[in-house]
Write a structure and sequence with these properties.
five-stranded antiparallel β-sheet; 35 strands; 483 residues; six-stranded antiparallel β-sheet; Methylamine Dehydrogenase, Chain H; mainly beta; 5 helices; 6% helix
């Protein structure tokens, strides 16, 4: 672990939570502090970069760290933990060489432009996971999903839905499962061919049935190549917010002179465009336009009469990219956005925007059984000024009317995406638990904290790990327990 200097009485920074966890573990968590809920059974999966260095070299961007899955399994009144890296070609080659062998979002292969000429960034499979049609997939929008065995987290391999996902088609880290049909909806940025003005950017939209068959595809032509990370669905529609963060200068990337991180920018002259796609026809049925801005992550969305109601995290800049290119900079700060609600009228084309809370926040989650249906509760990670807010250090529960309950971690402790897990047999939207992985900068260890979802001030139990977990991105909970 690298040393990070502390001033007198200063709490430790978040940087220790970015150090590598090179070892893979499998053990029962013992002891547990507090009472493990008897009605919590299933598996909590998480994904994120497990290392930010290879050998003595730091990767050039947080997005380039190799994907490491974690699984917390709740069964028989106990909790089992395991973690494993996804064995992508990048991970295997760089682990063996202990050196950078693949380009990344912000990482170049040593050797100048000739060593990078024509090479696209590798897929580190490091952003999210989904379990659908009996497959556990590790996701990163830089390529195909990677299939992983849900029992032991061993890597199965690149997954292309039996050839339906083209070789050059990428698959977003954020899909949505449609509760009524069981279909899984996802997308990926791409090119739809050439025009007189050059390559035509687009979104490729995919629909996968409960048996795992990718049976529908569509393309949405766009004016700019977008930084599109997430979207929402309602019962009838998929809604995409294409914002002011764009990639400008991909020719330099292909020539090996620049990384993708070098050419991503926030352009206030580009307004945010909203595309509403009919899920049955996969056609754009309505478009809206608002001022400049960007939506990185979304909460839920639903239909209300002629209106669509959409919650998400809004930003007016992308200064965070500078932090992500040098995560060990002692002055780095991981920024959040602000909780916004958009109401779109599908008849007259009008649109309303309102800020729901004033707290800086990110990583919104909710009870996904209500995906696309009216819901009243959302949970987010927050950044609170407590003297140590370089990384997310609080969680909040936000009711639909904007009432908030915030729980702030002690200085020197840093949180992550809070994940809702329903209790066995639950009937109410918030009848369950909030799962929060917390990094303790003093001990350089992590633990899983479990809160009551209907009263997040109630910390039910803590499950201390034997080591730290590097700060991760996203996860999900399934009531299934895998052998």
């Amino acid at each position: 672990m690298a040393e990070h200097a502390l001033g007198q009485n200063e709490p430790p920074s978040h940087h220790g939570g970015l150090e590598n966890l090179d070892e893979e573990h499998s053990y029962w968590i013992d002891p547990i502090e507090g009472s493990l809920p008897a009605d919590l059974r299933g598996t909590f999966f998480r994904n994120g970069p497990g290392r930010q260095r290879i050998g003595d070299t730091q990767y050039g961007h947080w997005f380039d760290g190799d994907g490491m899955l974690c699984a917390f399994t709740f069964r028989d009144g106990r909790v089992h933990f395991k973690n494993a890296y996804v064995r992508t070609p990048k991970y295997v080659a760089e682990t063996e060489a202990q050196a950078i062998k693949y380009r990344g979002f912000g990482t170049q292969v040593p050797g100048g432009f000739l060593a990078n000429l024509g090479k696209m960034p590798a897929n580190p499979a490091n952003t999210n996971t989904v379990y659908h049609a009996g497959k556990l997939l590790a996701l990163n929008e830089g390529g195909h999903p990677w299939e992983v065995n849900p029992g032991d987290l061993s890597t199965v391999g690149d997954y292309d839905f039996n050839g339906a996902l083209g070789k050059s088609q990428v698959f977003s880290a954020h899909g949505r499962t449609h509760p009524r049909t069981g279909d899984y909806i996802n997308f990926g940025a791409g090119m739809a061919g050439m025009t007189l003005k050059g390559p035509q950017p687009c979104l490729n939209v995919y629909r996968i049935n409960p048996q795992g068959h990718l049976f529908k595809k569509a393309q949405i032509p766009l004016a700019n190549f977008p930084f599109a990370h997430d979207f929402v669905i309602t019962d009838k529609y998929a809604i995409f917010f294409i914002g002011s963060i764009v990639f400008d200068g991909m020719a330099g990337v292909m020539l090996g002179n620049k990384t993708i991180s070098d050419v991503v920018k926030y352009d206030p002259d580009i307004n945010m465009h909203i595309y509403v796609v009919d899920l049955d026809t996969m056609a754009v049925v309505k478009q809206f336009e608002t001022g400049h801005g960007a939506m990185i992550h979304f909460g839920n969305a639903f239909e209300r009469g002629d209106e669509l109601v959409i919650d998400g995290m809004h930003q007016t800049g992308f200064e965070a990219n500078a932090t992500l290119t040098n995560v060990f900079n002692p002055d780095s700060r991981f920024n959040g956005g602000f909780y916004m609600r958009y109401t779109l009228n599908m008849v007259d084309g009008s649109m309303r925007e309102e800020r729901v809370t004033e707290t800086e926040c990110e990583f919104p989650t909710f009870n996904t059984a209500l995906t696309g249906s009216p819901s009243t509760v959302c949970y987010t990670a927050c950044s609170i000024d407590n003297g140590a807010n370089g990384f997310f250090n609080a969680i909040q529960r936000v009711d639909f009317d904007g009432q908030c309950e915030v729980v702030t971690l002690p200085p020197g402790h840093y949180g992550s995406e809070p994940l809702f897990a329903a209790g066995t047999g639950s009937q109410q939207e918030d009848d369950g638990y909030l799962l929060e992985v917390v990094y303790d900068g003093y001990a350089h260890k992590s633990e899983l904290q479990i809160y009551r979802a209907d009263n997040i001030s109630e910390l039910v139990c803590r499950l201390p790990l034997q080591h730290h977990i590097p700060h991760q991105f996203h996860g999900f909970f399934t009531p299934e327990v895998f052998a």
